[in-house]
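Let's study a protein:

___
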Amino acid sequence: MAASQPAGATTTGKRDWSAIGAAILAGAAVAAAAGHGALPLAGIPVPAACIALAFLMQWIGFLFAWARRTERFYDLTGSMTFLAVTATALAAAGKPDARALAIAALVGMWAVRLGLFLTRRIHEDGFDRRFTEIKTRFSAFLMAWTLQGLWVSMSVGAALAAIASTARAPADGFLAAGMLLWAAGFAFEVIADAQKRHFRADPANAGRFIHTGLWAWCRHPNYFGEVLLWTGIAVAAWPALSGWAHLTLMSPVFVWLLLTRMSGMPLLEASAERRWGGDPRYRAYRSRTPALFPLPPRFQRGSYTQ
């Protein structure tokens, strides 16, 4: 007779499967909304087909990763999924207009940059702390991959709806404004990541926290850039959307919630507290520096030196 599982393990497994089910339902809701007024592909709206592809790619990636108990290809698979679903929508659009081409290009550039950055980081580190425990539990590891499918679907929903929309809208101020917002957010993210990478590469900074450059403006400037660039894509997509597809404009709100409430900031802030919580210099930095929305140091209260 097989030994029974501990009650805690059983409860955790149920939560994992509940999260997987919720993610699939949320993805289906995004597919239904994004598909309103969209071109068909094999009898279903293009965005719905793309979102189904997003989840399928994650589950295939999961099977490969589970067999090897590795997380090394997780982020790369996510970036490749953004590229795959965007390319699929663009190809299904037939003769895409300027808006569709521009939005696809913005998503593509972001995905390539992020994929290369994250792949290089895990190659150098050798592991990802987020997966230290969960990659040994089937349901937890599957949940992580399924949630990545939801992340792709929610983030790119407005872009897919606009690219595949039957309501073509000529290039206008919304497209121009969206591209400018995207460019500002992309620059913020790239510069912040480069500054942190340079800071960590200096042996003199071992064990210290970054507080210079854009990191003096807010504690998570790369995440601010992420929210801003997806806001830009939503703005650029707006004129091409109709009916329920307008719900996909919640994309930047989802990105903000993901980074500030679910993953990203909560994990990093907790880690920083463990490392520097007793350091008065970190306490001063934390108390005067905004978490996400940047503010030039000269407008912040107090002063700081490390």
